[in-house]
Amino acid sequence: MAIEHDYFGLLESGPDGSIFWSENVELGDQRVTVDLTAPDQDDVSEAALDVAAAMISSLEAIDAKSRNAMVSELDDRTSEVTEYLLQQQESFGDELEDLLVDISGDVHVDIIRSLQLVSMTILADEHGGSDPFAVLEYALDPDDADAVLLVNLGSDGDVQSVTSAD
Question: Left (φ > 0), alpha (ψ -120 to 50) or beta: where does 9 sit?
Answer without folding.
Answer: left
